[in-house]
Amino acid sequence: MRLFVSLALALSLLAPPAAAQRAGTYDVSGTTLDGQPYAGVALLRQVGLVSWQIVWRVGGVELHGVGMTAGNVFSVAFDAGESTGLGIYTVEPDGTLTGQWTVVGAPAFGTETLTPR
Fold first, then answer.
1. What is the pLDDT of residues 3-36, one digit of tens each?
2. When you count CB atoms within 10 A of the terminal residue's CB, does the N or C end of the chain come out lower?
3. Does residue 36 fall inside a structural domain?
């Protein structure tokens, strides 16, 4: 019995990312570093147990990044041209991702919501 309980506990620690987060297309809305609103689309693709690839298409610009899920937190890093962008989101029960993002060295941050289609 102890072996069974120990095995069950060990397997629970290897649980996959939050069930609400899923691969697919998301509608994007947010604010830029200077507070201006924007909208677009993001595509998330799971590439490992907790690792993801993400592509944003906003205002004719395409940004590529990678991310990792830990519990209900989704963090990303993305190529922002001459710098690196970072974001951190909360995975909501319905799969919506809400968070903040910035570019390394920037004096401000933006907000962003990704809503699954």
1. 554 544 444 445 454 557 899 999 999 999 999 9
2. N
3. yes
